[in-house]
Every structure is written in C-alpha cells, then in structure tokens.
Amino acid sequence: MTAATFETARATRGSYQALYVLNEGGDKKIRAIVQNILNVLRDPRLEGKLFVALLAFGDGIELFRLAKPYGPLLERLAGQGVAFVLCANTLSSREIGPAELHPSVQLVPSANGEIILRQYEGWAVVHP
C-alpha cells in the first residue's frame, strides 16, 4: 500500500474573506485564536488577498475588554488589518458599555446572525 498524494490548495481567486469566531473566554483559547489568525496572515498563498474579521460573543468578549491583558495582541492584529466585531446582544445581556472595550470594536446585532449571513455570502467561517 502506498500513501496517497496530496496537492496543496492554490489561491486562484483575487480575494478571500474569513470570519474567525470566538465564544470562549479562557486565556489559552484567546491566545490560540490570535495565533491562528497571525499564522493564516503569513500564508504566502493568501498574502494580500485575505480579509479577516474576528467575531466575539458570549465569553469571547473578554478578548476585547480593556481591563484584560490583550491590548498588545489586538494592536498586533489591527496592524495586520483584522477587523474586530462584537455581538450587541452579549454587551446588553452582560451590561457592558462601549467605554469598557477596545476602541476598534464594531458591533453587530447578533453574532449568530452575522455568522449565518457571512457564510451565505461565501466567507470562510473558522471556529478553531
């Protein structure tokens, strides 16, 4: 028996969009998703072709809170052009105000609605 060959995927489109989803608040998970995004941004096949949005809801909101130690990670991602998106339902249910969040965060009415709509628009939805 011989091993099957595997051909690496090629980037044949002019652009790609990926929505990374974070709904967990543990430090290990938060740091892992940031590293996943940094890794994909270094993929030479996608260089200059990839737009990434990081969507947080539920416990994932911890990444965007100013009181948490993730500011340098967010600045690094922002410097790479990553958009930060947060579920307005999560803010409301937890009574968290915009002043408590990283200033680059943009709100969407619901995270699940955003996931559904983006997937139907052809975005890759990544939930590592």
**What number of structural domains do the residues give?**
1
Report the major sheet. 5 strands, parallel
How many angstroms does the end-to-end distance come to?
A: 33 Å
Number of strands: 5
If you had to describe this structure to a student in words, what would you say it looks like?
The protein has 128 residues and is an alpha/beta fold. Helices cover 32% and strands 20% of the residues. It is built from four helices and five strands. Strands 4-3-2-1-5 form a five-stranded parallel β-sheet, with helices on both faces. The model has no long low-confidence stretch (mean pLDDT 96).
Topology, please?
Elements: E1 16-22, H1 27-41, E2 50-56, H2 71-79, E3 83-87, H3 88-94, E4 105-108, H4 111-120, E5 124-126
Parallel strand pairs: 1-2, 1-5, 2-3, 3-4
Kindly list the characteristics that best describe this protein:
128 residues; 5-stranded parallel β-sheet; 32% helix; globular; alpha/beta; single chain; 5 strands; Hypothetical Protein Ychn, Chain: A; 4 helices
